[in-house]
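COMPLEX REQUEST
Ligand: zinc ion
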Amino acid sequence: MRGIKGLPKRFLCCFCKKTVTGPGNNAMPAKDGRCCNKCNLSIVIPTRLEQARKVIYTKCPCCRRRFKDVMNNRKFCGECADYLRTIIAKSNYYKNKFKKLKQELE
Ligand SMILES: [Zn+2]
Ligand SMILES: [Zn+2]
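STATUS: Structure written out below.
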């Protein structure tokens, strides 16, 4: 039996295996499934907070400063990325030498 938006009306919590009535909660990123409110509060939310904490600050390998990196897809801080981009753009030598680095900056 499926409710609105294709979500099940009843399902088993992917953590405690209890029957949940209603749409429940998305258990990502703790687990690929759905869970009850209790497990959402005790497992899923702490996992999300933990992950958020991890992605917020990254150490720039260039200037060694910590910078905010919410998407967790940046290797260098904004300043160093801009600086390195200018060097790479200016020189063909660096363009070839830092091909990999250039890909990381993009
Ligand atoms: Zn549960
Ligand atoms: Zn930097």
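REMARKS: The chain has a mean pLDDT of 83. The beta strands are 10-12, 19-21, 25-26, 34-35, 57-59, 66-68.
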